[in-house]
Amino acid sequence: GAVVSQHPSWVICKSGTSVKIECRSLDFQATTMFWYRQFPKQSLMLMATSNEGSKATYEQGVEKDKFLINHASLTLSTLTVTSAHPEDSSFYICSARDFVGGDTQYFGPGTRLTVL
Amino acid sequence: QQQVKQSPQSLIVQKGGISIINCAYENTAFDYFPWYQQFPGKGPALLIAIRPDVSEKKEGRFTISFNKSAKQFSLHIMDSQPGDSATYFCAASFSRNQFYFGTGTSLTVIP
User: Fold this and answer.
1) What's the rounded Cα separation, in Å, for the pair A94 and A40?
2) Which end of chain B, N or C, is less packed with Cβ atoms under 10 Å?
3) Contact A103 B98 (CB under 8 A)
């Protein structure tokens, strides 16, 4: 089945530093990847849609300059949280849709970010 | 505006019982309705999905019932097991665009 990986699975950083999270589709090509944020016991909140080779589309209220998204290849998208602050602490999850345009999104295992 | 409404927020079921989770949507353009299962600290995993031209889909112990006229769909878990204890999310999308997720249901199956 389709597998999506994320790295790292958890990260702790100091306030003011930047953190990069990688999302990879391991056995399929993903033209579209999505980045979500999830708070404890809440639903997934879509942050942005990332298409390979083009700029990401951000949801309303999501700061583009703070959450930098790059989708440089058909198997890799990265989310960089710049100048992280404690309020950025959350569970970040990516998902990928395969190249042939299937409807299903396959989710990564998530990255737990804690900003001290 | 919540595009997909999910209920109940939490559910406790006896082992062997039937778990039922309901979702309702407004946008008739939605054409794909998946259910995801999420364990604590993990990403959501696709459980089962349905399209609006089908009224029911069954995979093992999991069944989706779809009512197009009522704009509702539900997940039934037959013979619920303690290992099914997780959070379940319904979702809807159209034309292969973004998913709109429900608010989630925390299921606990007690032995």
Assistant:
1) 17
2) N
3) no
d(CA A69, CA A49): 9
**Using CA atoms, how far apart are residues A116 and A17, in angstroms rounded to an integer?**
10
| Residue A48 in tokens | 């942005």
The answer to whether residues B108 and B10 touch, using CB atoms and an 8 Å cutoff, is yes
> What angle (nearest 5°) sits at the alpha carbon of residue B52, between those of residues B51 and B55?
95
- Alpha carbon dihedral A37, A46, B103, A90, in 10-degree steps, equals 10
B33: contact with A, CB 8 A cutoff: no
pLDDT at B43 over 90: yes
A67 Cβ contact partners less than 8 Å away, ≥ 6 residues apart: A35, A47, A48, A58, A79, A80, A81, A82
B1 pLDDT tier (thresholds 50, 70, 90): low
Q: Do B42 and A103 touch (CB under 8 A)?
A: no
CB contact under 8 A, B43 and A112: no
Buried b (16+ CB within 10 A) or exposed e, A61-75: ebeeeebbbebeebb
pLDDT at A2 (0 to 100): 83
Q: Is the dihedral of CA B28, B34, B39, B43 positive or negative?
A: negative
